Amino acid sequence: MKNTAPAEKLPAPVHIGIIMDGNGRWAVNRGLVRTQGHLEGLKAAKRITKAASELGVKYITLYAFSTENWKRASEEVDFIMGLIKQYLRSEFDFSKRNHIRVRFTGNMEGLPVDIQKEITETIKQTAEFDGMQVVLAINYGGRDEIIRALKKFIQTAEKKHEDITENDIHRFLDNPDIPDPDLIIRSAGEYRTSNFLLWEGAYSEIYVSQKLWPDWEKSDLETAIENYQKRERRFGAETGNKASGF
Ligand code: IPE
Ligand code: IPE
Ligand code: MG
Q1: Which pairs from 80-85 meet CB under 8 Å and 24+ separation?
Q2: Cα of 19 from ligand 3 centre, angstroms
């Protein structure tokens, strides 16, 4: 817990990760089926992506489906996959207008083939856009990402195991060129990572909001950013140290 107020405001976060949680509760609270909550959650994802781009955020990672979410009823899983497909198709014009580059993190091979094609196509079509980068975390698990990186490292490794460094793993993560998230936001009040960006989030500031994801507006993102800017990031150094990242 922070016990001294930092002298200066932090610069705005370059990379924000969002655990978009609370769609089911939003629907149940209204006597609706859970899938209705996912539909509203998709609208919120579009609103917040637009807001982040307007606020000058450089990277945003949206946690859309975890490696554990397959445990849900097949109707719900199918509905979410359908929404993801629809999102990828319908957002292309918005991406083009705003120069948004779409990227992916997660276990691609475990996704339905039609979704894989849609993702690959979107990545290709937006590859040259130089505005904000939106990373879609679909069939994503932090542990799975580390295991996949390790497998790739072992395939190419010419090193003795005692010489392995952080960078040997890092360079095989899904998007090694993207800076670690400065801020991880979780909507809907749970205080856990649920397997999101375990490696990259080692020193991310965490902001938990009670608000359910479908209710998120631009002002909520602004509040999260303002809260982040009042923090003191130490990266393990002593209080008052000006250390700022790796
Ligand atoms: C988040 O909302 C969306 C996904 C995990 C796909 P939830 O569906 O988890 O909503 P709650 O947590 O049940 O309210
Ligand atoms: C995390 O939410 C995953 C996504 C938002 C995609 P969950 O609803 O799956 O997390 P738990 O089960 O509450 O930890
Ligand atoms: Mg949830």
Answers
A1: 80/38, 81/111, 81/112, 81/115, 83/38, 83/39, 83/42, 84/115, 84/118, 84/136, 84/138, 85/114, 85/115, 85/118
A2: 9
Test site for ligand 1: of 20, 21, 38, 39, most ligand atoms within 8 A of the Cβ: 21
Give pLDDT tens digits for 138-185: 999 999 999 999 999 999 877 888 999 999 999 999 999 999 999 999
Per-residue pLDDT tens over the stretch 45-86: 999 999 999 999 999 999 999 999 999 999 999 999 999 999
Q: What does the block give as tokens for 32? A: 């609706």
Domains of the chain with CATH codes: 15-141+180-229 (3.40.1180.10)
Pocket of ligand 2 (CB under 6 A): 19-21, 63-66, 69, 190, 192, 194
**Numbers of helices and strands, H then E, in the chain:** 8, 6
Is 213 within 8 Å of 21 (Cβ atoms)?
Answer: yes
